[in-house]
Amino acid sequence: MGVSNVKQWSRIVKEALDRAFFTAKFLCLLHVSNTYLCTVALAHGPSMLPTLNLSGDLILADRLSVRFGKVGPGDIVLVRSPQNPRKIITKRVVGMGGDRVTFSVDPKDSRRCETVVVPEGHVWIAGDNIYASTDSRNFGAVPYGLLQGKVFWRIWPPQGFGLLRHVNE
Amino acid sequence: MKCRRFGGKGEEDMGALSKLSQWRTLAREAAERTAILAKFLCILHVTNTYICTPTLVYGPSMLPTFNLTGDVLLVENLTVRMGKVRPGDVVLVRSPENPRKTVSKRILGMEGDRVTFMIDPKNSNRCQSVVIPKGHVWIQGDNIYASHDSRNFGPVPYGLIQGKVFFRVWPLNGFGSLRQ
Description:
The complex is a heterodimer. Chain A contains three helices and ten strands. Chain A is α+β, with helices and mostly antiparallel strands. The longest helix of chain A is centred in the first third of the chain and has 35 residues, at 2-36. Chain A is elongated and about 90 Å long. Chain A starts with a helix and ends in a 6-residue tail after the last strand. The model of chain A has no long low-confidence stretch (mean pLDDT 89). In chain B, the strands form two sheets. In chain B, strands 1, 2, 3, 4, 7, 8, 9 and 10 form an eight-stranded antiparallel β-sheet that branches. In chain B, a hairpin with a 7-residue loop joins strand 3 (90-94) and strand 4 (102-109). The mean pLDDT of chain B is 88. The chains are: A alpha+beta, B alpha+beta.
């Protein structure tokens, strides 16, 4: 009686361990592909209207473009905020290092413009909705090392499913 | 009565079948090797991200803490991700001037701190004082005469910190954890 109980238990334990290892390997693979290949992000807020919705869009961002330096003006990128390192924001790249960028300082109040040269190793990011966006006009050019991924596809809401267009300057 | 087919179509079939099974064995072996490699890289990545990773640092900017010709250090990034980095820690930072370069420096101030530093210690004694903005840190090399750091490019965003150095592995006479 006792021996058969032990045998049953050992079989159950072995099966549980097998399943646990399989799950661990799968999660590992998911984590690695999330870090090096492609990641899913939920973007919400008014700063990228009308491109991205106010209430939240699920977007896919690839990590290889950033790693290999294939990000350019017109791309939507995920950036770690220079003001709050725990926050990741979605903005569009307007200029790379060495470019000259012209922007209106406060579009609601005046039409005063300013021109800035983006330092080497930095990018200038701006939200599509310039009236409600905290971006490089507020905190200056951000170092390229803060870029987390380049957004290329929207998966939710379904009527917006598809490629997010690159905007030519 | 036995029939034997030799030559002609029979042997061609056998040849094609054996080649197919050879291919299949090769493919299966390749898939197994790839799976082992993928699992190994997975484990390497998880170790590097959640436990620690070794790195080689060289250059004059952190003398006398680190040697000129190169030290192998162990770096962990759990402290960075939890936001528990403090002034006095030696960290690896992605350079704000060249994103492909990672430098090792010491943190001298966190956000909100006021930092006083000598602009050009070789030539003059003039000092300057700066308040570090929100979300940024002030990094400086221990060897202020030969270091390109926040005195040149200003405070760097916290998000550029890649890891905190906690142990030296090589050279052996420096083996051990790093003192403040």
